[in-house]
Write a structure and sequence with these properties.
With about 250 residues, the chain is an alpha/beta fold. Helices cover about 35% and strands about 25% of the residues. The chain has helices at about 5-10, 40-50, 65-70, 115, 130-140, 155-160, 170-180, 210-225, 230-235; strands at about 15-20, 55-60, 75-80, 90, 95-105, 125, 145, 165-170, 190, 195-205, 245. The chain is elongated and about 60 Å long.
Length: about 250
């Protein structure tokens, strides 16, 4: 695998078009400036440097839109949760980071563990097409999943109340933030444990050539093993919220 072959597969236009999910506040932590900042944009920058091409960030409002665009030639690499439902059109590396998904429940709810929520009569509110929503779609045996009409974390919090759901699914840091900052959640609690670990990975549209995925795999292995991801976690202030994949 040569650099020239990887560049031809991943940046055929001479620029790396890197898709990022703006709704993941842990990985895109600052959107106030002209260019989004966070772990995902920084990792894309390092990848473009490795390929020796300019970087063009391609932002999407939610992961569903990013995944849909895999077949539309809108991006060359995309940073998104590596869920099986997305693998038909996207070839994923091993993960570079892990994010923990769990449930928020009302204090009077008898559930104490995540497994307790998947029970007859329970309903769960979730943001449509989030990685953990895809997991719940595939794995729930007894509980009812209620998804927002359109993807969005605030909408899932509203849905939790509108539908009188028993649980709200989300990334642990976001749910803990609701307890601290949203008075509607006074008297609620976040369950210990997790129902899913979202594996954040680098993906590329399938059919990009034999050099594409091996090059990305090698880049991710070096970024995780060599300390780059850990450095970016510290730089962007998400220690304890994002875990380097091993």
């Amino acid at each position: 695998m040569t650099l020239a072959a990887a560049r031809a597969a991943l940046a055929p236009r001479g620029v790396l078009r890197a898709a990022i999910n703006l709704s993941n506040f842990l990985l895109v932590s600052d959107q106030t400036g002209a260019t989004p900042r966070g772990i995902s944009p920084s990792l894309c920058g390092a990848l473009a440097q490795r390929l020796e091409v300019p970087l063009e960030l391609v932002p999407y409002a939610n992961p569903g839109l990013l995944a849909d665009a895999a077949t539309s030639d809108e991006w060359d690499v995309g940073l998104i949760g590596a869920e099986p439902a997305r693998a038909a059109t996207i070839a994923f590396t091993k993960p570079y980071a892990h994010l923990e998904a769990t449930f928020l429940v009302r204090d009077g709810c008898p559930a104490r563990r995540c497994d307790d929520v998947d029970a007859e009569g329970y309903s769960i509110a979730v943001s449509r097409r989030a990685a953990y929503a895809l997991k719940l779609e595939a794995s729930l045996a007894s509980a009812t999943l209620k998804q927002t009409a359109e993807p969005g974390l605030p909408a899932s919090a509203d849905l939790y109340f509108e539908e009188s759901c028993d649980a709200l699914a989300g990334l642990r840091p976001w749910l803990l933030g609701l307890l601290e900052n949203d008075e509607r959640f006074a008297g609620s609690r976040v369950l210990e444990g997790r129902f899913h670990v979202v594996e954040q990975a680098v993906g590329t549209p399938r059919g990009r050539g034999d050099a594409a995925l091996p090059f990305l795999e090698a880049f991710v292995a070096e970024a995780t093993g060599g300390g780059l991801v850990a450095e970016l976690i510290r730089e962007h202030g998400v220690e304890g919220k994002v875990v380097v994949a091993s």
